[in-house]
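Thought: the user wants the 3D structure for the chain below. I'll pass the sequence to the structure tool as-is, report back what it returns, then summarize two notable features.
Action: structure_tool
Action Input:
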Amino acid sequence: MKIITATNPAELGKLAGSATADLIMSTIAQNGQANIILATGASQFETLKQLTSEKDIDWSKCVMFHLDEYIGLPASSKASFRKYLKERFLEKVAPLKAIYLINGETDPEAECNHLNGIIERHPIDVALVGIGENGHLAFNDPPADFDTEQPYIVVSLQEECRRQQYNEGWFDSIEEVPKQAISMTIKQISKSKHIICSVPDGRKAKAVKECLELPVSNLYPASILQLHPECTYFLDESSSAFLSVQKVLARK
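Observation:
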């Protein structure tokens, strides 16, 4: 486990985005292609901003997947993760080799089966993730399924998770937040060769402490990242506020 702390979200994003770019470029140099996972949400604003500003990445050699999408939400919605990725990433970089966005407007089980067949042929080199206020990883709310081998599954969203989405301004009311989503699973995320976990903001401080310092448990889904040999956490002063100072210093 490696922890890098920044003074604020902007600095965090620059560090995380630059680290991601280095990993993508080194993977392309070694393998001729990089398979990547992108996360969405407020925690990724600055990281993706930095990543899209990097000039030396050959995006034509990248294959992209993403973590999750609401079921039944139109792609035109301001809360759609497909819309998010198009506006904050895809429209800002050169065309990729392939893009696999989750379609939450079709039959969810069929969409999972479709994506599962594709991602199984594309071992992931670099994954961007965050940690939810309830400790979720992607949309795997506690108690998360640590055992399923399926890459994508249908999940139900907890009230705390749905309230986070509302409080971040993605929806006009809590009632508008969908109750189900398609999510990449814990095991699939954990198969990534490298993981960049960006977690800004003080409202995530409790979850950060639980997921980094408590024993690994599906009650704290992102705690599974403690077991990953190549996971780097990028935190700011607010999100790392509850961590043991000794642990933060030891892991930088």
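Final Answer: Structure generated. The beta strands are 2-6, 34-38, 62-66, 68-70, 98-100, 126-129, 152-156, 180-184, 194-199, 231-236. The chain has one domain: 2-251.
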